Amino acid sequence: LGDAVGLMPPPPVHVEPLMPAGPRQRRGGAMAFLLDIAPIFGWLRDYPVRSALAHDISGGVTLGCILIGQSLAHAKLCGVELIIGPYSCMLGPVLYAVFGTCIHSSIGTGALICLLVGEVLVEHGDSVEERSRIAPFLTILVGVILTLMGVCRLSGLVRFLSRPALSGFITASALLAMLSQVSPMLGLPDSAGSIQKVLLHQPERLLAVKWPTLLLSAVATGYLLSAKRLKQHPRLKPLGDFKELVLLGLGAAFCAAWDPPGLSQAECVEHPLCVKVVGRIEPGLPHAHWPRVGAGDWGLIHSMLPGACLVALVAFLTSFAGAKKFGLEDGYQIKPFNELIAIGMCNVGGALLGAVPTSIGNTRMGIARQCGVQSQLGANVFVSIFIALAVQFFTPCLFYIPMCALNAIILIGSSHMLEFAHAGYLLEFARHKEFGRDGRMDVLVWIVGFVSTLFLGAFKGIISAVVLSLLIIVLQVVNPHIALLGRQQEPPQSGVPHQPPRFRHRWVNMRGQRASGGLVATAVEEEPGVLVFRFEGPLFYANVDQLQEWLEAEELRRIEESPVDYEFKAIIFSAIAVPFLDTTAIGALQTMIRSYADRNVLFLIANTFANTRRIVAETLGADQRRALREDLRPRLASCTTVDDFVELVHANRALSKERPRPLIRTTSSLLSLASLASLNATPPKGTLADRQWPLQRRPFSLACDRTPDAEMGRFTASTPALLSLARPISPRDRAAAGRARPFDR
Description:
Layout: H1 2-5, H2 29-37, H3 40-43, H4 49-78, H5 84-87, H6 91-99, E1 107-108, H7 111-124, H8 128-151, H9 163-180, H10 182-185, H11 195-201, H12 211-225, H13 227-231, H14 237-241, H15 243-258, H16 265-270, H17 297-330, H18 336-350, E2 359-360, H19 362-370, H20 376-393, H21 403-415, H22 420-431, H23 436-456, H24 458-478, E3 481-489, E4 505-509, H25 510-515, E5 524-525, E6 530-536, H26 544-561, E7 570-574, H27 583-598, E8 602-606, H28 610-627, H29 642-655, H30 673-678, E9 700-701, H31 719-723, E10 727-728, H32 731-739
Parallel strand pairs: 6-7, 7-8
Antiparallel strand pairs: 1-2, 3-4, 3-5, 3-6, 9-10
């Protein structure tokens, strides 16, 4: 305010953080604990009075003027008495200055939090007086929950509120708040209900629209919408900065001159030309006292607990996100522990004055930095003092404030919370071929959060979105992405004359390169006879079976799409994206390494790191070495990258005389030729001798209605008849089998 009238010097370009960052922070004992809990005892001693006090006072007066108008509108949004809005902004900012760590944080009422508070209070109170009485109970619950979260270091709980879930929830809540303001802005009585109810069930009530109220609401909405343009003109900038305060002042002047004198509030509601005003508010400061809990209030408090948990989580999430952003931009540390304690104490202390739950206002934080606020004295303490003085001496001026002006402030403020643009961004993300699945899941979460909040309410809406988000996380962990890697040749680098072959190409996702078409500079091809893949995520008991199934399906695909003489030599597992392995996964990998080794197929693990490398070396290294030729086993310790293991595979195949045995597609009525060989079954003369069975390891289709005798290791007496039906699969048969149904195969 001082900047607007030219009484204060311009704000400095750079704001020096006044949080304790020097040697005092390293003290031990009680002083270190005190500075950790209440940072004000560290930075207040170093407060630069001469250079910072003027800017803090100017910023505090500016924020106070803005917060008075906003708190009145937010109190109406909560459904409580209007004076509770300014009451909520008195003690809370002082307590945040003691415990908080963000310089520019402005504690007060907020539109989103008041939306949730209003929905909780409406469920438990039918009248304004009853909701005003039980509001401190909800505020205490919110404060205690946040304080306990800080003491127990549970700031990570808010991470379960994903960005799409929160965006859909906020958009639906803001839309509901906007719709709830339409009926009062038309001059309809409170008994009419929401505009949706009027349009669907009582359209005749639209004939009772009060034209003075409608015109004043339209003017107020137009003025608030044009506030950004007013800020661009130096002479009109105060009208844009203090738009809420200017609107309430001009509206009060209009109603004082327009409304017929001598009418009570009840008579004004019925008068067709009267604009409803705030009315008389008890002057003076509130008396600090704990809310009195009656005999029936304990059940009320218990029923409000779920709503209080939701309000606490959303309050901390929105507050901490804004504080973290400003801390990163201005170069000071924001501690989640202190923010939880500070916001929790703000609400516990605010309940002494009958306040509604409060949080940090992100818009007011930007105004605080713009005004040159250099400490929490300007962002909170001086704001609290200014609001207390205004409530003490200027409460009678609130009598003629039009209610439709408060409705217009809520309407425009809620419109700024609509995040349909974020939904459009998610849709664009979902259309991307490489990120389609993840993008579609985010779109689904946004839609569920939006629709469930719109039709079921705020609490059930956010719970539905969070549950769906957690379910998607579980599904993504259980079904992680497995990337088939191909070799992309890279041109040699200039100035590097002798490059090893393994540095002249890289391994990329085959599916991603196929989807991107001609965007790749060089061709991507699979390594002949070697399956290289990357498992993206933790490998544990819930998804190791999927890995086995994927490997079998991919091996069968290669065999069936390749010539008859194709050799499947090895599988190389790139573990660069595997953060940890559990015992079930280790046991499954040991089984796979040994079973593939029995078929003369190598299973090697590359690109291990940190703890995964140690586990692989200690538990799986011996099995990998045992599968190699004896001359190549010492080379395994020096192999790290995929290229190293590819060279090792080719060297091992060159020294091995036995051909790898391929995997054969089978069903319950089909048996592989390799299984017959492992059971030492001997075919009858004249049936398969000319086909060099079983030396020629080729795929067979075999009709079989018996199972092998595990004890004898041979087939039953019907084996000759069954083997007489066996025949090799030609390329034509293989192609036909690919098109056939699974049972026919």
